[in-house]
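Working notes for the structural subgroup meeting. M.R. asked for a predicted model of this chain before we commit to crystallization trials. I am recording the input and output together here so anyone reviewing the notebook later can reproduce the run.

Input as submitted:
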Amino acid sequence: MPKKKQPEENRPKVNNPNVMGLHAAVVEQPITDTLETNYMPYAMSVIVSRAIPEIDGFKPSHRKLLYTMYLMGLLTKPRTKSANIVGQTMKLNPHGDAAIYDTMVRLSRGYGALLTPFVDSKGNFGKTYSRDMSCAAPRYTEAKLTPICQELFRDIDSDTVDFVDNYDNSMKEPALLPTTFPNILVSANSGIAVGMASQFCGFNLKEVCDTTVAYLKNPNCDLTETLLAPDFPTGGELICDPNAIRDIYETGRGSVRVRAKYRYVKEENLIEVYEIPYSTTVEAILDKVAELIKAGKAKEIADMRDETDLSGLKLAIDLKRGTDPDKLMAKLYKQTPLEDAFSCNFNVLIAGSPQVLGVRQILEEWTAWRTESVRRRLYFVLSKKKDKLHLLKGLKRILLDIDKAIRIIRETEEEAEVIPNLMIGFGIDQIQAEYVAEIKLRNINKEYILKRTRETDALRDEIDDLEETLNSPQRVKKIIVDELNEAAKKYGEPRRTSIVYSHEIEVYTEEEPAEEYPVSIFLSREGYFKKITPASLRMNSEQKYKEGDGLRQSFETTSNAEIMFFTDKCQVYKTRLGEFDDAKASVLGDYLPVKLGMDAGEAVVYAVLPGDYSGGLLFFFENGKAARVDIAAYKTTSNRRKLTGAYSDKSPLACIRRLDGDGELAVYSTEPRCLIFHTALLAPKATRTTQGVAVMNLKPKYRLDTVKPLEETSIVNQSRYRVRAVPAAGALLRQEDSEEQQLGLLD
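Returned structure, recorded in token form:
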């Protein structure tokens, strides 16, 4: 029962001021204010400080890791443990060791996610094309910077970029890295922020450098002449659509299609896939192909497996006999991730603001930023040289009368007065005087004086040249061009992703499933098979056979029904009637050993329409045994055409009978004897190769000959041969019960 509400005057009084204050602190606030004060700072932090790359091509996590490795001297020193690098990086990146190590893995050469990796790795770093191949723990792997990182940190100590405080103000870190090439276009990058995302495909380093040089010379140049198409570290073939490429270059958005590369190994009748699209994985491809096989949509494939090893990626596809590998691959390109699309979204941070830019706009922003970096470097060098020239001018004045300088120093009583006295005696400033005062006695000689004098003249020339460069945009541009050409020459590599055009490739068009219609099928004793429509049979029902051949079996079914052919080599071949062309009664038909690719000397002994795989099969052997096997034992999940071990090979096969329901069978031996038994006496066996149980006891020189349903025999005295249990010897066949006697009476 709920408690009754107490009157106001009877409620307990709350005297705790903390509780009263808590109630007083609860105030209403509009949801828009909550979003603005609580959610917006988080969203802006993700956009600006995590997910979107900046004009140098790096996210903050990449930049912090690479700069830490640069400070550790890993540009020239040997590799060190990854755990050591991760620990040092936490001075700049407080997001945890796992996130830092994942960043290092993605930048590594071993992982293979970048065309130009920045981390020279040793150990297992996983693979970008594998979903399940994970990297080793950081305590096992080692790393250092790759040589191309010299282009990332060139002149970083020459005031080329701004430095900012780290998260606890204990050290400085660069806001950007002064890359000498447009890394934003070279390195593939992806990120999901709040309300926006970024997806950069990689381009070939040499093509990017050549395109940037062409842009610097002519901002209206045709980018597609030098920047052919995206390039991916996993290779493959890019299906080039010039209009789609131009859209990406102009708008920064679009998609390209990439397909796997393969080769056909004729000797082994298999396809080897050795390069796959960048946007998929080996496991995704295997899973999709397995689905197609189970659904019966890839009947040409016998097996598919991953044979990737130290030599690289390799997927092996075993083909069935007679399969056209090019047509199969065209089909797999259409239905599996062996051909996949890569979507581009060139969202980049420009001065802290996310913008989706086309390639030309990115080059414009990068060249403007790079020009400023080069000018800052020139100002820094100029300032240093001016400072040095200023010192040398003071030294020159002193060296004109070195005896006076020595006398001033010797006659000065207090050390603190040395600098002021030199300043007064020679008319120089404090910085020059301190520089002179620090000169060693051994340097007060004629050779030193002449060297410094000549250096003064050289410095004046260098300063004039630097000032002239700073005042000439063309000379600054030439410096950028020279650095781009140097980077392209030193680190450029051939394209990994080849380019093909849509008119050069074969497009798979899915065939509509054939319409089902009734047919009659005929199997001859020598293995000739015909599928005939009712209309054709009505026109001519007389079957043609080779001399000495005749009908073994005939059925009425539908045009695409599944059929199994048992052979005398204990094998069964499974196929569909749709693989046979409609024939006429006047032709011999398809020769099954050739059509099904049977082994040499192998012959068909029985055909079965499995339907829904209900019912069973009875195998009778010459030694008098019989085996009852469910047809479901021949059902397979994959689309295998050939099954070995279809029945026991311990004794020659006498005959096979389909069993849809229990009934009586008549078994004949060569003596001749006969017995009639009920099939319920035979229990079904779980294995196809079971030897069965004895049904007929035979004398040594005789064998089991044939088996027929009782209703198809001409036996008059059925009770004479009927038995209640097996095995049994049966009874000698009387003349009136034999087939020969019945034929004689009919004649």
